[in-house]
Amino acid sequence: MKYDVFGIGNALVDMEFKINDDFLNEHQIEKGLMTLVEEERQNYLLSVLSSAQNQEIKRQCGGSAANTVIAVSQFGGKSFYAYKIANDETGLFYLNDMQENGVETKHSKDFLPDGITGKCMVMVSDDAERTMNTFLGITATLDENEIDEEALKQSKWLYVEGYLVASPTGQQAAVKAIKLAKDFGVKTSLTMSDPNMVQFFKENMLEIIGDGLDLIFCNEAEAMHFTDTKDIAEAREAMKKYAHTFVITQGKNGALIWDGTMFVDIEPHVVDAVDSNGAGDMYAGAFLYGITNGHSYAAAGALASLASSKVVTQFGPRLSWSQTKDVLRKYKGDE
After folding, report:
1. Cβ(193)–Cβ(64) below 8 Å
2. What angle do CA 240, 299, 287 make, to 5 degrees?
3. Which residues of 165-182 are buried (b: 16+ CB within 10 A; e: fewer)?
4. Strand bridging mode 130-135 / 118-124
5. What residues have CB less than 8 Å from 272, skipping those under 6 apart?
6. I want to staple 77 with a disulfide (CB 3.0 to 4.6 A). Which of 14, 273, 289, 298 is the partner?
7. Does the structure show a pLDDT above 50 at 122?
8. To 10 degrees, what angle do helices 297-311 and 279-291 make?
9. DSSP letters along 48-103, please?
């Protein structure tokens, strides 16, 4: 196989800011969730932050699945990403950043459509919680044409971003990608992405899952919302109906894995978190790298726990190449 992971999802340039809860309350922004906004609303919030001298911490290519396939690449795996960007400065920045992180794509700077590339405001509050306001731009029109069937056929796993349920064409692309993957004998995985996606687009999520996937990533809130259960013990039993295996991340309490035979508790790493943005994406990326490179689910979970604990100690959803190698060395006991 040429690729370990073929990802499909939104292409958004992340703009990250430090804020406090007063800012969220004043502007009626729901804390801890991803909210879709119009460009005018996003530009207004950006102008407010600029006038208040809230400095932008970092700009980099993002989107939930993008962060995950970049993590796979940085750990030493091979990944491909299906996404949609426009021929503007933001889109060219995105394309260059993906290439620098070793992720292959069918796009080139000479064949990009007109439009506006999507942007995501990531607002990090003092308690390390991340709140996102996203203007999808051209990624809202991502459709089946972005699927490179030959690349998918040459992949071990398909990884679908749950945020696609919010777009009719993105939803169709996700369903098509999963059908193709099953036809090609490629294993299928999905991240539920955000409690709002499960709460407001559950029927779409069910359509993507269809008769079941090989692997689902979710957190506790998403698992309980999706299965209409009141506690994690009920939710984990109900999740067996939708996937052969699954990972339920539990924040500072680690993670719970169903490997198809037994439940595995993954211990957390105690750290001083400053930014939770990208923790779930990093967990999925490290986990997928692990299971596509000979590790058991338990071992992959241990690596993912270590990696995600590292990413929350700094701003931004990704590690540098050198940090990723450090995580691998610590995981392998070389230090």
Report:
1. yes
2. 65
3. bbbebbbbbbbebbebbb
4. antiparallel
5. 313
6. 289
7. yes
8. 150
9. HHHHTT--EEEEEEE-HHHHHHHHHHHHT--EEEE----SSHHHHHHHHHHHHTT-
Is 86 within 8 Å of 138 (Cβ atoms)?
yes
- Quote the tokens at residue 272: 């001083």
Indicate if the pLDDT at residue 335 is higher than 50.
Answer: no
| Nearest in space to 130 (alpha carbons), one of 313, 19, 276 | 276
- Between 10-24, 154-168, 184-198, the lowest mean confidence (pLDDT) is in 10-24
**Cβ-count burial of 203 within 10 angstroms (0-12 exposed, 13-18 middle, 19+ buried)?**
exposed
Q: Is the Cβ–Cβ distance between 119 and 44 less than 8 Å?
A: no
- pLDDT of amino acid 53: 63
Token pair, residue 60, equals: 């980099």
Residue-by-residue DSSP string for 195-240: HHHHHHSHHHHHHHHTT-EEEEEEEHHHHHHHHT-SSHHHHHHHGG
Q: Could you give the CA distance from residue 142 to residue 247 in angstroms, rounded to a whole number?
A: 27
By C-alpha distance, which of 162, 13, 150, 5 is closest to 78?
5
DSSP 8-state assignment for residue 280: H
Confirm if 63 and 280 have CB atoms less than 8 A apart. no
The Cβ-side half-sphere exposure at 78, using a 13 Å CA radius, reads: 9
Distance of alpha carbon 73 from alpha carbon 66, whole angstroms: 11
Q: Check: CB of residue 99 under 8 Å from CB of residue 81.
A: no
Domain annotation for the chain: domains and CATH numbers: 3-10+64-106+141-332 (3.40.1190.20)
The amino acid sitting at 188 is T
The string of DSSP letters for 120-181 reads: EEEEE-TTS-EEEEEE-GGGGG--GGG--HHHHHTEEEEEEEGGGGGSHHHHHHHHHHHHHH
